[in-house]
Amino acid sequence: MSSTLVSIEAPGEVRLVEEKLPDVPEGGFMVETVYSGVSAGTELTYVKGTNPYLHSSWDPALGLFTEGVPSVAYPVRGIGYMQVGRVVEARTRAVTPGTLVAMCYGHRTAYVADPMTDRFVPVPDDLDPLLGIYVAHMGPICANGLLHAAHDLHGPAVRELGDGVRGRRIAVVGAGVVGLLTASFALSAGAAEVVVVDETPERLAVAEALGANVLSAGDDPAVVLKRRWRHGRNDRGADVVFQCRGQPRALAAGLRLLRPQGTLVDLAFYTQGAHEVRLGEEFHHNGLSLRCAQIGRVPRGLAHAWDRERLSHETILLLRERGRLLEDHVITDVAGFAEAPRLLSDLAARRRQALQAVLRHDVEDESR
User: Fold this and answer.
1) 3 beta partners
2) Which of 182, 226, 261, 363 is the most core-located residue (most Cβ within 10 A)?
3) The pTM of the whole model exceeds 0.90
């Protein structure tokens, strides 16, 4: 059996290629893709040619990018981390044929998995399979942001995901998928108020439809919020800011939103420099904290209790509560798998706008 997968041949050049799948080994299983969500951040950096792995060598032991042979070279295959597949063959008791699972195996129409190395999360029957694209990875990315906020306030004594936002005033910078899911987590956890800041009116309208308050980035939201959010004399601003847009100006704006000694939890991916982040101004004078909530790790001391499986569980709880809103307002484009090259190329070149694009693989159509 073969699988069709997305291959980025060079910057701006995307096509579909065929790969022969191995036989399902003892203990393994095969899935056929139902949905594959597109990340408009990480994935498009490979289409644009801006991902640091393309230009530097990543040393995992040192945790450094260094000069040398780039860690990734074209063609780039296997990108994508929001897959929902249906098990069609199983030589293991870990799953049964017909089960829907959320996984991260890249944009391909089928995949042979090993339960010992491939992480999979069964998609509950009461959840729309389309929402399953968030269960394995994207949802945990955002949940991990809230976990960092909780750890910032309570250290290793965190008990619930919302411990860092409940009853507090929260700002979210960036109304892309990460920002909207993060805002949804904060709303669900009982934040006193959640304000989403973005430059695009259409995205602010989506944030508003999800239940958040909104401010345009062009209206100096720091002044607006600090006039409204008072904690005490000379103490105004957001308790926590979640920075979810990969632009240096967004990080600079997020720091301005914070109250003195407040914390910014950064979920963004910056592929260029950050010359607009002026660390001698609000960051220095207000004694602010900046924490990176990269999905590769949870806060120190919490790994035993807050692994990826628990973050996926928290995602499922959110989707059960707010899934209809997310499906109606965040998932904006669903395209056939054959349209993937044009879709990715158009998104990277800004010829097409999409909030959450999803590739649909209809096995029945292919068999006709």
Assistant:
1) 19
2) 182
3) yes
